[in-house]
Structures are given as C-alpha cells and as structure tokens.
Amino acid sequence: MGEIVVRSVISNSRYWNLPEKTAASFFAGGWFRPNEIGYLDEDGFLFYLDRAKDRIETASGIVYPHIVEAALLRHSAIALCGVVGLGAAGAQEIVAGVLLKPDIEGTGALEREIVEVARPGLAARELPCRIFFVEELPTVLGGAKVQREVLQQRLSAAR
Q: Is-contact 80 99, C-beta < 8 A?
C-alpha cells in the first residue's frame, strides 16, 4: 500500500494560477501526485484505496476509512456509512456513522453484529470501537461521497 503517483501524455504540468499546488503535486519528468492511496497487485493492476488526507492515525497505525466502510457495508442492514477518527492525532479511535435501511432499528446487538460481519479482512486497528446509528449522513454528489469533516464534528459532539 502506498501513495499513487502517475505520469501520462495527457497529464497537465501545472494547475492554472496555483503555483503552490503545482509545486506540491508535480515532480520533474511529468509525474503527478493526486494524493491518493492504492496498491499494485501481483499482475500490476492498480487498486485505489482512499484519499491520503482521509487517513486516520491511531496508536496502532494508519487506517484508511474507505477500507473500513467497504467492510461495514457487507452487513445487509446498512444503507450507507462513513468512518472517521475521533481524538488526538496519533491516538484516534475509529468510529462509524451508519445509516440503516428503512424499518431497521439500531441496537447494541446490531452494533456488535455489524462489527462481526466487518471483522474478516480487517486488522484489529481498523475495527470501529463505536458505531453511531444516524438519521442522515452528510454527503455530496447525491449521496456518493460522505463529508468526513462534517461527520467527524457531528460524531464528536454526540460522543
């Protein structure tokens, strides 16, 4: 797993009127740094994991929310979810805001069941220590992308 850096004949060599962003995003030779995390499989295929800025720094290591969200969404009761870190950087706890499908009620038993369904394939540090059942998730793009900063503020206040 690591930061994705790409070079292509169609890549632009600068951001229009943004010299600081250009300096941070482009390397010599036309390499572009989109600030995203991924990995190459044994056949050389690139797999996207998450935005680098969304990483959560726990005491046990880095956690990428998209990986945890994909695991949580394996539970049939979940319509949509968002994962964020709460607490001080370097010691954040993984928490999830979960929007349930209609006519399903959130309980402590359901919270434990969701974690158990998500457990396979996740490291211990990636498992949410708490799930908040929410009435709505702050999203953009018609619900396609959770606004993590807004969710983090809401869950921090609900803590």
A: yes
Distance CA 30, CA 54 (A): 25
Note whether 28 and 102 are same-domain residues: no
Q: CB 11: neighbour CB atoms within 10 A?
A: 11
Give the relative orientation of helices 108-118 and 65-72 as an angle to the nearest 10 degrees. 110
pLDDT of residue 31: 87
Confidence (pLDDT) at 73: 96
Say if pTM beats, i.e. exceeds, 0.90: no
Task: Provide the residue range defining the domain that includes 83.
Answer: 55-158
Angle at 91 between CA 133 and CA 33, to 5 degrees: 90
Q: What average pLDDT does this structure show over 109-136? A: 95
Backbone angles phi, psi at 54, to 5 degrees: -90, 0
Please report, for the domain that includes residue 33, its CATH number: 2.30.38.10
Can you say whether the dihedral through the CA atoms of 105, 77, 122, 86 is positive or negative? negative
Q: Are residues 51 and 37 in contact, defined by beta-carbon separation less than 8 angstroms? A: yes
Q: Are residues 96 and 151 in the same domain?
A: yes
Mean pLDDT calculated for residue range 45-72: 93
